[in-house]
């Protein structure tokens, strides 16, 4: 009988029956591993982990969770490092690990250049499959963990660096298990037919666009997604410009903007500061001398720049074309564009292949997953890593004011300002890395307080974050207008009346 109280044992017995052998795990070791993350707020142990093997399994779990009032937290590959890893937004939820058994590439259509994937398909797995098929198609990758998943990343509004950088924007057609256990198909998939030929090719057909409901929310479990791919260009040539001064950011942003507004440069620009590039190449030489209390000195930064041949800022982008010779005139044009003030030092594609952190950029522009940037997790000992992800309009003065503001807040907190501005035409996302010693309680608190202070200050200037670590989702929701919170709560109430799906994720509760 339904008492309205959670009954974990009854839920797990039902899940065990539905999923069969190995479908439920609640060993101490497993709970510890799934609770671990790199954030300041500490680990969040789940009550159990379940491993569905099919959409029907997901439906069975969701229905049982409704009967027994048990909260579920879905993950795809669980490589959300710096945003929560595999841990749920609250302790005691049951993690639904979709990636372990639902990891098939369901389809690759080489004519229309798209793939259809289950949640466990990683960037590496898709890359390997495309290479096996002759390397005619290219996927947009992140520069994060190659084992990260295409579907989970798109749902969290992740992004890459090629013309298909917007992973949610280039996803088309989803299958979703709603919190009641019903299956929803979005886009043309909503047609009542068994043969839906446009499901993964047409984004906006009849009716409201429901896909957006499932990004950064807790309104459903996505079990299938179409993802668009690019034809692999015959030649890819990168270009890079190093600048000496922190305030050169103003000039850089104003130079990048017209090249993106006209789409002359097809990739996004990676405008990366010295520590973002050099921080992946080893631990801070100054961390132990200041016991982690001070930001790295200007001399320390200069020494790193000289060692690795990069600037206070390094701008990277790439062209695609029929051959290296066909691309050369475009490289010359971009060189004269950035050469105007005489401040930029040009680094050629060939030179960049010898500089490990710039090779990461080349890989990102080429749709090749790589491990290089994960070195950032070792810049300070103790494994602490959180992302702070605001953005600014593509106006040099505005972006530079934000740079000064955030650099100052890092320094107040004795942390090292580490950022990459990823620039599109009108907007750039500032990927800020907070590296801290997670084993040192005082430093952990400083990292949390640095995040909050920056989030408050940028919000005061009208800027919001594009994604949030689990520690700060409730906080960010509290920064929204009441009608936004109210609408999110009403949708939650309508779709998930028992509140069983990741209650509190992104600050969304039934209301
Ligand atoms: C050094 C470094 C560099 C990085 N660079 C980038 C980068 O360039 N671009 C970028 O976007 N990210 C980057 N990241 C962040 C991150 O690692 C990736 O975004 C990662 O791929 C996301 O994790 P995932 O794919 O494993 O998703 P998951 O962890 O599986 O999912 C993310 C969240 O989405 C929700 N979710 C997942 N699957 C489902 C589902 N099927 N249904 C409903 N909800 C679901 C869950 O709540 C989950 O917590 C970087 C991280 C590091 C450490």
TrEMBL record:
<keyword id="KW-0285">Flavoprotein</keyword>
<dbReference type="GO" id="GO:0071949">
    <property type="term" value="F:FAD binding"/>
</dbReference>
<feature type="domain" description="FAD-binding PCMH-type">
    <location>
        <begin position="42"/>
        <end position="232"/>
    </location>
</feature>
<keyword id="KW-0274">FAD</keyword>
<dbReference type="InterPro" id="IPR016166">
    <property type="entry name" value="FAD-bd_PCMH"/>
</dbReference>
<dbReference type="InterPro" id="IPR006094">
    <property type="entry name" value="Oxid_FAD_bind_N"/>
</dbReference>
<dbReference type="InterPro" id="IPR036318">
    <property type="entry name" value="FAD-bd_PCMH-like_sf"/>
</dbReference>
<dbReference type="GO" id="GO:0004458">
    <property type="term" value="F:D-lactate dehydrogenase (cytochrome) activity"/>
</dbReference>
<dbReference type="GO" id="GO:0008720">
    <property type="term" value="F:D-lactate dehydrogenase (NAD+) activity"/>
</dbReference>
<dbReference type="Pfam" id="PF01565">
    <property type="entry name" value="FAD_binding_4"/>
</dbReference>
<dbReference type="InterPro" id="IPR016169">
    <property type="entry name" value="FAD-bd_PCMH_sub2"/>
</dbReference>
<dbReference type="InterPro" id="IPR016171">
    <property type="entry name" value="Vanillyl_alc_oxidase_C-sub2"/>
</dbReference>
<dbReference type="InterPro" id="IPR016164">
    <property type="entry name" value="FAD-linked_Oxase-like_C"/>
</dbReference>
<dbReference type="InterPro" id="IPR016170">
    <property type="entry name" value="Cytok_DH_C_sf"/>
</dbReference>
<protein>
    <submittedName>
        <fullName>FAD-binding oxidoreductase</fullName>
    </submittedName>
</protein>
<dbReference type="GO" id="GO:1903457">
    <property type="term" value="P:lactate catabolic process"/>
</dbReference>
<dbReference type="InterPro" id="IPR016167">
    <property type="entry name" value="FAD-bd_PCMH_sub1"/>
</dbReference>
